[in-house]
């Protein structure tokens, strides 16, 4: 399967990924090779990865899985371990895991000794098609998503679809949400294909999603304009995710579960403000409702979620900026939403 070339690195899949990793390690002559895992990837993915790498690993650092561990204290622990194990500027950090591992590991590598090389090996569908691509690294600030971080590119991203067999179905479906988003913002035929497709974990679909995101990132690497379309569903979705993360009475949501809710809500806003057809709004709602349970939200929950919008990274000069759809496959950025429409959107979501 053909590799995908980004700015300064490539995304390799399958056998090409294995060959690329071995060639890179042999060529670069790293002083140390470190590996970052969580308890799940240590158990399910590490044995397979050791055979693929075929090179000694100097130290393996383990963190706890889950968004609640994606914070600066975890970074501090890894920085101290890197230092304690004689890491230097010629060291390599390999991030083997989902979006928390690749986001946090990339940030740790980008800031240790003012930057060491890192390689992302995503093990969840979400991280394969989204989190590990595009150079965004960082951590949360309390429950607020991705407030601290830098854009810095990995040496390469390696995708091995066999790791998907280690996931529970809920994790797989979480990644499906981001794949559907790629169709909604940029590729209507892909949306049509994905929403009716029984198997979305095949290498062809994964490669297509990666290529769609990569094409956007190449045109706007630092998110000055076009790249913002990748945030469709994320303004309200991140607020919902953050709210449920910090509220002990709410079920903690996976990223894709929160973004699915966000896309239904922002689909409704698209109809009200950008002319997205009512038929398309209903199609979006029905598609996500087939795969994701509705998030139970009362009026107090909604008020608290809307207060969190002020922390969204796309905001500028006090304005909350949304990505909305003019039609399926055609997104626009920097749309300001009147406050009363939020409540109408949540009312539609709960219907």
Automatic annotation (TrEMBL):
Keyword Metal-binding: yes
Top EC class for this record: lyase
GO term, biological process aspect, one: chorismate biosynthetic process
Domain spans labelled 3-dehydroquinate synthase N-terminal: 61-172
Record EC number: 4.2.3.4
One matching Pfam family: DHQ_synthase
Entry annotated with the keyword GTP-binding: no
Keyword set, alphabetical order: Cobalt, Lyase, Metal-binding, NAD, Nucleotide-binding, Zinc
3-dehydroquinate synthase C-terminal domain ranges (all copies): 175-315
Cofactor: Zn(2+); Co(2+); NAD(+)
GO cellular component: cytoplasm
The name this protein goes by in its record: 3-dehydroquinate synthase
Organism from which the protein derives: Flagellimonas olearia
């Amino acid at each position: 399967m053909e590799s995908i070339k980004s700015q300064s690195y490539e995304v390799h899949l399958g056998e090409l990924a294995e060959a690329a990793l071995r060639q890179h390690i042999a060529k670069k002559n790293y002083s140390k090779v470190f590996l970052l895992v969580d308890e799940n990837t240590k158990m399910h993915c590490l044995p397979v990865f050791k055979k693929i790498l075929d090179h000694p690993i100097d130290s393996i650092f383990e963190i706890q899985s889950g968004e609640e561990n994606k914070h600066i204290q975890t970074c501090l622990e890894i920085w101290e371990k890197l230092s304690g194990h004689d890491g230097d500027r010629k060291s390599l950090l390999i991030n083997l895991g989902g979006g928390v591992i690749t986001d946090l590991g990339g940030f740790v590598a980008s800031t240790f000794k003012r930057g060491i090389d890192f390689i992302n090996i995503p093990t969840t569908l979400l991280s394969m098609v989204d989190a590990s691509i595009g150079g965004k690294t960082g951590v949360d600030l309390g429950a607020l998503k991705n407030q601290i971080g830098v854009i810095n590119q990995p040496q390469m991203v390696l995708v091995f679809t066999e790791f998907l067999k280690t996931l529970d179905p809920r994790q797989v479906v979480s990644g499906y949400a981001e794949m559907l988003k790629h169709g909604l913002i940029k590729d209507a035929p892909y949306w049509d294909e994905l929403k009716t497709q029984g198997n979305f974990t095949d290498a062809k679909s994964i490669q297509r999603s990666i290529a769609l995101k990569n094409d956007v990132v190449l045109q706007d690497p630092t998110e000055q304009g076009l790249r913002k379309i990748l945030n469709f569903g994320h303004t309200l979705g991140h607020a919902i995710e953050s709210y449920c993360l910090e509220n002990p009475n709410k079920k903690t949501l996976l990223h894709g579960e929160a973004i699915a809710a966000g896309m239904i809500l922002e689909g409704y806003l698209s109809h009200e403000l950008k002319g997205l057809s009512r038929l398309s709004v209903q199609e979006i709602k029905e598609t996500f409702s087939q795969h994701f349970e509705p998030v139970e939200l009362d009026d107090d929950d909604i008020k608290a979620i809307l207060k969190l919008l002020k922390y969204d990274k796309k905001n500028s000069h006090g304005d909350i900026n949304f990505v909305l759809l003019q039609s399926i496959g055609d997104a626009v950025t920097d749309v300001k939403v009147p406050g009363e429409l939020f409540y109408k959107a949540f009312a539609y979501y709960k219907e």
